[in-house]
Amino acid sequence: MHSESMNCNGHEKTLSSGIIGIEVYFPQTVVSLKELEKFDGVSQGKYTIGLGQDNMSFCGDREDVISIAMTVLDSLVSKYGISYGDIGRLEVGTETIIDKSKSVKTALMQLFESCGNTEVEGLDTTNACYGGTQALFNTLYWLESPYWNGKYGVVVMADIAVYAPGPARPTGGCGAVALLLGKGKEVKLIPEVQLRATHMENTYDFFKPNLSSEYPTVDGAKTISCYLRALDTCYSRFIHRAEGLTKQDNFSLQDIDYIVFHAPFHKMVQKSFARLLFNDFKRDPENTFFKDVQQFGNISMEASYSDKDLEKAFVTLSKALYEEKCAPGTFLAKNIGNSYTASLYGNLACLINEKGNDLMNKRIVLFSYGSGLASSMFSLKVIQSVQPIAQKLDMRTRLSSRIWMNPEDFTKTLQLREQRYGQMDYSPSNSIDSLLPGTFYLEQVNSIGCRKYNRK
Amino acid sequence: MHSESMNCNGHEKTLSSGIIGIEVYFPQTVVSLKELEKFDGVSQGKYTIGLGQDNMSFCGDREDVISIAMTVLDSLVSKYGISYGDIGRLEVGTETIIDKSKSVKTALMQLFESCGNTEVEGLDTTNACYGGTQALFNTLYWLESPYWNGKYGVVVMADIAVYAPGPARPTGGCGAVALLLGKGKEVKLIPEVQLRATHMENTYDFFKPNLSSEYPTVDGAKTISCYLRALDTCYSRFIHRAEGLTKQDNFSLQDIDYIVFHAPFHKMVQKSFARLLFNDFKRDPENTFFKDVQQFGNISMEASYSDKDLEKAFVTLSKALYEEKCAPGTFLAKNIGNSYTASLYGNLACLINEKGNDLMNKRIVLFSYGSGLASSMFSLKVIQSVQPIAQKLDMRTRLSSRIWMNPEDFTKTLQLREQRYGQMDYSPSNSIDSLLPGTFYLEQVNSIGCRKYNRK
């Protein structure tokens, strides 16, 4: 039995709602971080080794959060052979806000027009990179509730991450993910209902109070410690529930087959994986696996966040486990950068792309983090072959066929985005040549800010 | 039986999740629209008769969307004698965006600190005035799903509606509502699960593309026709389902005991009620109730939206029904103005405040509209006395004890808000004298935009 809960009569009930399909979109234009290091005049390896990133996706003034959300949604619908009439709920997670009132979701309703389906619940859900996770949870509740209308639920995560010139700029990126959710025989990944832990608090580690700029306000060191503290809290709650569920008292990373993280930059994922092992060590210090890190036995949790020796020791100790359980889900984010709400689910797609049938009956744990802050750790069990999803994703081919831009053009493109932000009454000036056939793009923004799209 | 759905075994199941309590907050400062008419030099009655509004709530630079959300949430928790530790989910509906990434929900987490409860799901949900309705639906799904953790769900709707000087300014307002949701014996209002209809489409009738201003972009005529078209569509779907549920073929307004609308301004509520009667007429033209409006039998739906004679005839015909079914839920909005996401639920609170025990076993239908656009019509059945809610609301006393400001001071206050919008590194200059004890207020915005609050 993959997942249980009690129903109204106190009997065990098998959950039947989960993920049927996943589609990923990233722009065709990409810049190499190695080249950007040279261009920015920073030390070699600062971005590629320091951040652990290889390349970064970006887009010009032809694509915005609405167009990339339309592209990924339409691609999902087409690849999975469903109709817009089959969708009963569509929720969007994003922090790329271009209107304070009108949701991206309502803009997506233009795709439903031709089939006349206007009864599609769901809006936009916002808190930094976590919005998509809450949207996913809400959709699962809907599917499992008596309010479900028998149709599919779709969750779209879409973000364009751009930063002011400076040290944060290479942590940008762009991507969109669409999840197809439903019930019954089609479901391939199903949540383990008891294996979910959440932690939320009021922080100002990364936020966007400057409404007239596309750039966030970032306290890099604070956001890293917030991320790790949230990870600790969620893992501790997750472990507690996992031990209750599995009736064992030493649940650890070993009981998790694969783990995917929200990835602001790749180095953070390595740190996070090592941090989980540090948590396991604190709970089971006598375990021989930890014989080489005994010197960290008495460190306080507070001090542990900034102890570089500790971090290094656990990154080293976790290497083999990391390669096995985490690395397969990281190459997308390393190659497109941070895609905010889409990041975690892009990494899940990446894991599926890489491992395919090997994931059968495996437990995949996801850690979602959104600054401000909201975080959850939860588990998905693979109950049916995900090979059909992997085939449709075809990620490596798509990544390798992108168009390489040089750092000068990347910088000019970001300057153009800066100029366009909040602008009205214009037609975008970037060519649509670089867009793949089928991509939606911005055609015009009129004098009061209404946006018109077209499709290549 | 108040509400049914099928459970997993195909047997009828009674829903047990619904509304336990409601709290409303509005600022202490208020301006008379009669006085504003004189001050603005417009014809007498333009705001009071033309819009049907009496007074408008507003706030200075001491209150923002976070502070009013904190005030209403804390007041709900205190009046209903619950602890922050008892809340498992908190979702915010708002379109008063002061940060594009950090949610209002995470700011509310500061109230949970003292009891150490950080496991509180839910974020902000956005699409104009509809955000609170989706937040409510999401919370009901959670309560009815196997993911429910046994705790209360709370939905907070909070908005400050301000407009640029001109014809839209008198349609402003300010208010916040908190709904306490749960399961079982405490529930007083319960949804009728089958009686819900939704309509969403891509429109630009009212939106906020100018991110550096607090003011929206409004196409007044378009938003009225969008509202009425959405109302028609939802009502038609609602009727279809109601006829299925009640096994009758002539379900109409007569089968609805009370109805509350999202109220951008009071005249719109009267128009909307009359519009439902027009829909009933189109479905049952031979009914003798409609003998005086037979001349509108052949009008097209398209033409009907702008036909003033039709509107007048149906407003007249609906007068008695309106007084009985709709008027009791309208005096709050007439006295505080448009509170966007809070409007519909403030009107529900108002109906409860006015009718108390008379609502026992009655069907209340709600129509929610958010520009852009999202809309739903759904039904709540009163299954237990709502008199305790009415007593806690004590709305008339609270409304009558407000502080009357003159139009000059109102205008100066809005100028101050304009100046503050997006500003950083300041302490608000308005006195806190006018705030009631217990009200949260903004203490400081630092140089990077972090907000600090205090409590009177």
What's this, in brief?
The structure is a homodimer of 456-residue chains. Helices cover 34% and strands 23% of the residues of chain A. With 456 residues, chain A is α/β, with parallel strands linked by helices.
Describe this structure in words.
Chains A, B: Belongs to the thiolase-like superfamily. HMG-CoA synthase family. Chains A, B: One of its GO terms (molecular function) is hydroxymethylglutaryl-CoA synthase activity. The structure is a homodimer of 456-residue chains. The first copy, chain A, is α/β, with parallel strands linked by helices and 456 residues long. Chain A has a single domain (12-455), classed as Thiolase/Chalcone synthase (Peroxisomal Thiolase, Chain A, domain 1), CATH 3.40.47.10. Helix content of chain A is 34%, strand content 23%. Chain A is built from 13 helices and 18 strands. Chain A has helices at residues 33-40, 65-79, 104-108, 131-144, 220-246, 266-283, 301-304, 308-325, 331-336, 343-355, 387-393, 395-400, 407-420, and strands at 4-6, 12-14, 17-25, 29-32, 55-57, 87-93, 124-126, 152-161, 173-183, 189-200, 206-207, 217-218, 258-261, 363-370, 374-382, 403-405, 440-445, 451-455. A five-stranded mixed sheet of chain A has the order 3-9-8-6-7, sandwiched between helices. A four-stranded mixed sheet of chain A has the order 10-15-14-13, sandwiched between helices. A three-stranded mixed sheet of chain A has the order 5-4-16. The radius of gyration of chain A is 22 Å and the shape is globular. The termini of chain A are far apart. At the A-B interface, helix 3, strand 7, helix 4, strand 10 and strand 11 of A face helix 3, strand 7, helix 4, strand 10 and strand 11 of B.
